[in-house]
Amino acid sequence: MSGPRRAFWAVLILIALGLPFIDRNSAHISAYVDTGYIVLLALGLNIIVGYTGLLALGFAAFYAVGAYTYAFFASPQFGMHVSFWLMLAGGGAVSALFGVLLGAPTLRLRGDYLAIVTLGFGEIVPQLLQNLDKYTGGPDGIASIDQPRLFGFSFGFNPVPYYYVCLAVLAISLWLLNNLRHSRLGRAWMAIREDELAAAHMGINTTATKLLAFAMGSAFAGLAGVLLAGKYGAVSPSGFDFNTSIMILAAIVLGGMGNLTGVFVGGIIIGLLNSLLLPQASNLMHALGRFTHIPVLQAVDLNQYRFMVYGGILVLVMLFRPEGLIPSATRRAELRVQHHDAVVTGAGAEHMAAQEPVV
Amino acid sequence: MALLSLREVSKSFGGLIAVKELSLDVEPGSIVSLIGPNGAGKSTVFNLITGIYEPTHGDVVFAGRRLNGLKPNAVCAAGIMRTFQNIRLFAFMTVLENVMVGQHARLKAAVWDGALHTRFASNEDKAADRKAMELLEFVGLEAYTSFWARNLPYGMQRRLEIARALAGEPQLLLLDEPAAGTNPAEKDALMQLVRSIRDRGVTILLIEHDMRLVMGISDEVHVLDYGEKIAQGPPQAVRRNPRVIEAYLGKGA
Amino acid sequence: MHQFLQQLINGIALGGVYALIALGYTMVYGIIELINFAHGDVYTLGTYFSLTILALIPLSTITSGPELALVAVAVILLAALLCGIVGVLIERLAYRRLRNAPRLAPLITAIGVSLILENIMQIWKGTSEVPFPQFLPDRWHTVAGVRFDDRSLLVVGISLFFMIALNLFVFRTRLGAAMRATAQDRDAAQLMGINVNSTIAWTFFIGSALAGVAGFVSGLYYGTTFFLNGYQAGLKAFTAAVLGGIGNITGAMLGGFVIGIVEAMTSQYISDQWTSVVVFSILILILVFRPSGLLGEQAPEKV
């Protein structure tokens, strides 16, 4: 790690550790925890989209799988009460399994078809959760889920312990992912992103490697789901729809696909925007409205514009800064060069490349 | 015994026969060339060997093992590496990373080794790094390790592809038009490079249009035309073969 | 049997709407290989335009048949025109710049455009259901025990009319030929003197205009709409396009009717709440087992 980057992380860790003491507002701390879950989801999706170059759209489905797995195993629903800490691994594993089940038949599909298949899966899962009400509690979901306990102390609804658990999970995840990125597997993922056929000729089992990306990405989502279910003590299908998937996608696009720091920052920005800034900004507008006697401002609800913001991020970043706020060096060059090529060789350069004769 | 044998291998696409009953032996330690006019089916032969296509008829046998139906990654693991006619490097990975990926099949670190950065993974990666550096020196690219592959000039990209292929420790190296687009000085250097690869104990099967190169380094030459073999033998004999002259220059030349 | 026929009629009417939307997906995909994610929302926008225009017309004073027909035609054409313009603007502002970027880039942009359109409609008419003015007389027919009204007939009639018109356009006009040429090989088309940019813009115009027609038709048929309608309807219409073989115009129409009928039958014989699950399962199964669709050509894998 370079000096400035090391300093960046050091400052970040200090702020992160001290935050609940600086900001004692428990609603805020709760929002920080939710932001942490978004970051975790973004880190997972980044393995699939950023490293391996596979566009998965229905990612929230795996989040749902994790949350419901914990709900099934630790609530009166089926009378089981497995430990939260055990289920952190369990929920991740079940999500990974779903990732493999979905990935195995679909990963050989072309990029945009894969996007649509995962999107379809993302639609089916919440529908199933709604319709199979005998098991899932239908639209109301499952309540009275066990909340985590540690050394006889129950976390309850105090956000602070969840905050530190989330922080620990994030720290371990970042460490693992940074290792993976520079390992044999990480290089194989990127080789597949760059040229799948050439990767196969280097001895990479592309199917298994892509499947592994899917499984590991999904595991992160499952982990986030267990954390979420534990924190709120309740789950329902509504939190796992397409909009959630898009929010996660917006986080990695904004931060910079394929770059851990970028994805981390993107996750924090989108997470805070979602759980803290937009509601806060609305209140600010209302106060401003009362002060200036402008009725429009008093009534404005910025939450309404949430998806304009996410949509705007997706469009503007792709058009004007495709590498994101903090890109990986590689990705920046790639996306920039393709833009450049478009100018140099005229329309259809990529089209031609795709039609080139065999090898 | 031959290292690689094609035994009456045919490949057709729909009604089109791309390769017809081709038999060919590559002896260990030799440099064998495959030549022929454009569209003769040379690259198809490479694709049949490396598992992109499966032969419609016939067998591909490597070191006594039948390769038919194996996937490219399994063919690579068996000991065959290749380069591509239109360069297929990992454009936005560094030169060093490209060669590291080439070693994929020879590295053993499991997923958890990588994730936990175990001593094993760390040692193995260090060794892989050293080996990549050695190969880059061998092809003369040691000064460019941190460049993106796509930023190298064309001739260097060709050599990087060769280094990447050698990283897989192949017994047999398939070179698909390595001299295409290179200048005469680079061609001479390439000829030297191919010889020294053979001297490292790697057997070479080469597709090439540049006759000076082919005639200069091949132990044996096979000539394809319309998917069929029309001649084979030592370079000098093939060069004087009337069918070869006709295939290249057309009837009445 | 009677139930079955009844649902068949419903399915065909529904299928007409999906077919019209599917045409836009398939045309755009055929020409620039982009899944125009915002297309479903352009369709909902069509319904919004239609009901806004209808609200401006003093409908209660118009009672005669020919006058009503004139109103319908005028509203359809206006809604189609507005949607067409929206489509062209989207292409120009959001997609054209990315035409040679990695394929994921325009797809992500398209998702962003979709969200923006949905949010605009949400702000425009709110988050609750929006009623669609019913200006046609409520006339029902019974044939062989199956009941249907003028609206179903109109929906099917209008859909078929525009499909035939599109076919004639694509296969009988110069611009249609330019589109087919551009879809086959953009560079060759350019060398032949075809203005590729304007051809692509026209493709977006026509596809979006058809979505506008579908928006009117569905408003008429359901009598209500909702700002998020286009998301699921779009996904179902995309399923139809894939089912018929993406890029294939006849296939998109066929696929639209198949999906409409499947949806109607599912709601009759299984349950309303399972229709999405069934349709999206079909989507996944087709993409996995026969990605070329029913009528598409099996494209050889490019190595």
Summarize the structure.
The complex is a heterotrimer of chains A (359), B (253) and C (303). Helices cover 74% and strands 2% of the residues of chain A.
What does this structure look like?
- The complex is a heterotrimer of chains A (359), B (253) and C (303).
- With 359 residues, chain A is an all-alpha fold.
- Chain A is built from 16 helices and four strands.
- Chain A has a two-stranded antiparallel ribbon with strand order 1-2. A two-stranded antiparallel sheet of chain A has the order 3-4.
- The radius of gyration of chain A is 21 Å and the shape is globular.
- The model of chain A is unreliable at 339-359 (pLDDT under 50).
- Chain B is α/β, with parallel strands linked by helices.
- Chain B has helices at residues 42-49, 72-78, 95-102, 111-116, 119-138, 154-166, 184-199, 211-217, 235-240, 242-249, and strands at residues 4-13, 16-26, 31-35, 57-62, 65-66, 80-82, 172-176, 203-207, 220-225, 228-233.
- In chain B, a hairpin with a 2-residue loop joins β9 (220-225) and β10 (228-233).
- Chain B is globular and about 60 Å long.
- The model of chain B has no long low-confidence stretch (mean pLDDT 92).
- Chain C has 303 residues and is mainly alpha-helical.
- Chain C has one domain (2-227).
- Chain C has eleven helices and four strands.
- In chain C, the strands form two sheets. In chain C, strands 1-4 form a two-stranded antiparallel sheet. In chain C, strands 2-3 form a two-stranded antiparallel ribbon.
- Classes of the chains: A mainly alpha (359), B alpha/beta (253), C mainly alpha (303).
- Chains A and C meet through α5, α11, α14, α15 and α16 of A and α4, α7, α9 and α11 of C.
